[in-house]
Amino acid sequence: MAELFLAIVACDAEIGDMELHCAVALGSGYRRSRVPMPFEECLRAWQVPHIFSVCTIAILFGETGLGNISVPIMRLGRCKDSTLDEWFPVEPSSTVRLRLLLHLRSESGGAAPASFERLCSELLGKAGKPSPQTGQAEGAIHHAEPKVTRSDLGHSNPKPASPTSPASPASPASPTATSPERAKDLARKEDKVPNLQEREPDFAASLQELHRLCQSMLPSETPPPPRGPLPVDDEASPSKDNVYDEARAQLLSQKEALERESTELNTHWAALQEDQATKHEVLAEMRVERLSIFATVEELQTEVEDATTELKEAQAVASSRLATRRRLQAELLACSADFGDEAAEQRRASEALRRKRALLRSEAVELGRELQCCVSRGDALVSENLQLRTESAAVEEAEDGRFQFPRCNENGLQSIQGCEIGKKDGNCG
């Protein structure tokens, strides 16, 4: 649970020598203190029930409320774990301001923060702590104030105050208890009842019921006590007047206590109303945010469904493509195997052709060599034929003269031989 440290260190108001008091309410906690706060009161932590709480400070000038200050805890949550030093205006008064030190701590327990304690000591030291005489006077004033609790308010027959009590304004030693100032004071205090009725009907009804019970307590046949000077010869009149004045003083003190408690309760009620209004605003904002979040969730859900449908379609297409790819891969593997076999067959065929070509080349070389031998043999035969022809021509010329007729026969034979040789050489004419 978070903790709040609150210190009222200064007040900007023209109040003279009168002292201001404050009533602070936060959640179920409630405290009263003077302004500025004592140093020990500043170091006491407030328990924050939740972040939507509102700290309400009511400023009291005597028994009159000057206004209040509302500090939302949500605003302090933005600067958590840091000390704020700010002036806050008192509403509805526009001339009164309070200087507050605020420190919101996320964790509970432990001593007050060092920065907050240092600022409190500095500012309260500069503002000046109350002197012992002032403290004694304040103690006397607080001691003189009647302490009326809620259990005391429930009794219809109040006990008469003792004659020596400082809370009893009418005593035997005070003959001026029924003076005109006292009557005016009573009338002025009674005039506050309509305002209380306007502000708090339940409290006004309770006050009227209390007044009726007090009136019923008095005997109806008894005349009201005299307001003027009492006769000397009547011995019972002073005691009766004293009893009535004491009862009236007790009722007035109870009325003042009720007014003070009503102011505090109204302040606390205003704080609770503001807290509830803040909660309603936050809940309205959260409701709007929730509706927007629901709309966003529905849109996202629709988008998710569309994306799921598209994903399923894409998965179906991908599955078909995967099956096609696997089938193509199988066909590719089969084609690769066939291509490998065909390539091996082609390699084997080319190797066989290469061997055949090598054999044919070797055979061609051998045939070329044989052709060359045949050509050289033919050349030798041609040269030999030429030589023989030359020799035969020489023999023919030698024998031409002897035998002319046989020469003709030889010429024919030579021509026949020349034709045969020409056929062999390809030059037969």
TrEMBL record:
Biased composition (Low complexity): 162-180
Chain spans, region Disordered: 149-196, 217-240
Taxonomy, superkingdom: Eukaryota
Protein name: Uncharacterized protein
Lineage start: Eukaryota, Sar, Alveolata, Dinophyceae, Suessiales
Composition bias type Basic and acidic residues, residue spans: 181-196
